[in-house]
Design a protein that fits this description.
This protein has about 350 residues and is of the alpha/beta class. Helix content is about 40%, strand content about 20%. It contains 17 helices and 13 strands. The strands form three sheets. It has a six-stranded mixed sheet, with helices on both faces. The chain has a four-stranded antiparallel sheet with strand order 2-1-4-5. A hairpin with a 2-residue loop joins strand 12 and strand 13. The chain starts with 20 loop residues before the first strand and ends with a helix. The structure holds adenosine-5'-triphosphate. Belongs to the ABC transporter superfamily.
């Protein structure tokens, strides 16, 4: 699996720069006793089920912390009910957080007044939902330009920008079509174009492909990967599908019962799952598609002949199989001229054998 940039779970490579979004100890509790719950360390320490029993309140998001870096594709993954949608809706205050902090480009979103929030939602954020939310009586071009129209962008400028993003998402020729003349996948392309039209700083996706057929879904995932590369925007993507998360995410946050279980790159989740829950999630992932050489290399022994081929530690195992198996000596894993370890047939076969 190709990744644009190597990172660690702490995001240290990402965070040479200021985060776009920074979330601290965020809670969202539904129910009339919500503020009592977050004011009480005792109630906060209860599990979601216990809290429900004791107070009738639902702790949808519980003490969540994470940062998203500029240009990152950050995926929030968890089973149904784990709190993904509530968490992401809190980020734009479509859902009002009960406590905690959310900074967007350094600005405390929780202090934003209604006017500022409207501004942010119009100019800085875009959302793509599962149900495309297209206006049925408007053509593709007019749906795509809708946000610009609301912003008061002049017709000619709007048409120009709409055409640009329509071309970008591969809908050239369909400008005059109406949503009901398009397949589900194409309708979601309109949703993508609409989200991109206003040139937002962050795009939020809430399970945008769940309603699509598997093959179309795969196409759309590739499309988002391509768009992300081309436009370089920060994206926050919710899914309950691990393979989607692994395909798209620079980093993945795994939620369970409102809490963060682990945040990491795909190879970190597969190579070093934080607990049995994550281990269970990643059990069926083909490890050779996700793990990189740094996960399987070993220190060289005195018997190793060290004039074999060299590969980087972030090379995905699957892409190294041929080089390793065809070399008659270990492949050296090298970064910036430094020998980090070696990989030979046994290491490769150890990964591949587990996938049978
Ligand atoms: N408005 C609400 N009032 C009360 N409880 C809510 C509300 N919205 C969500 N919840 C509860 O909060 C918890 C988290 O829900 P949420 O929709 O965020 O999870 P999710 O991971 O996005 O699930 P799904 O994939 O099914 O949408 C669930 O127990 C849900 O029932």
């Amino acid at each position: 699996m190709e990744k644009r940039c190597a990172q660690s779970a702490t995001g240290s490579e990402w965070f040479g720069v200021d985060p776009v979004i920074s979330v601290g100890d965020l809670w969202k509790v539904f129910g009339s006793k919500a503020s009592q719950v977050v004011a009480s360390p005792e109630l906060k320490s209860l599990s979601r089920a216990e809290l429900m029993d004791r107070t009738g309140a639902v702790a949808a998001v519980r003490g969540v912390d994470f940062d998203v870096a500029p240009g990152e594709m950050f995926v929030v993954m968890g089973l149904s009910g784990s709190g993904k949608s509530t968490l992401v809706r809190c980020l734009t205050r479509l859902v009002e957080p009960t406590s905690g902090s959310i900074a967007f480009e350094g600005e405390n979103i929780l202090d934003a007044d209604p006017k500022r929030l409207r501004d942010l939602r119009r100019n800085k954020f875009s959302m793509v939902f599962q149900h495309f939310g297209l206006l049925p009586h408007r053509s593709v071009a007019d749906n795509v330009g809708y946000g610009l129209e609301i912003r008061g962008v002049a017709r000619a400028k709007r048409a120009e920008r709409s055409q640009e993003v329509i071309d970008l998402v591969g809908l050239t020729g369909y400008e005059k079509s109406y949503p009901d003349q398009l397949s589900g996948g194409m309708q979601q392309r309109v949703g993508l174009a609409r989200a991109l039209a206003g040139d937002p700083d962050v795009l939020f996706f809430d399970e945008p492909f769940s309603a699509l057929d598997p093959l179309i879904r795969r196409d759309m995932q590739s499309e988002v990967v391509r768009l992300h590369r081309e436009v370089g925007k920060t994206m926050v993507f919710i899914t309950h599908d691990l393979s989607e998360a692994l395909k798209l995410g620079d980093r993945i946050l795994i939620m369970r019962d409102g809490e963060v279980v682990q945040v990491g790159t795909g190879d970190e989740l597969v190579g070093a799952p934080a607990d049995d829950y994550v281990r269970d999630f990643v059990r069926d992932v083909p490890r050779s598609h996700v793990l990189t050489l740094k996960w399987i290399m070993r220190p060289p022994t005195p018997d190793d002949v060290l004039d074999g081929p060299e590969l980087g530690p972030d090379t995905v195992v699957r892409e190294a199989i041929r080089s390793v198996l065809s070399a008659d000596r270990p492949v050296k894993v090298v970064r910036d001229g430094e020998l980090l370890g070696v990989v030979a047939d046994e290491e490769i076969l150890g990964v591949v054998a587990g996938e049978a």
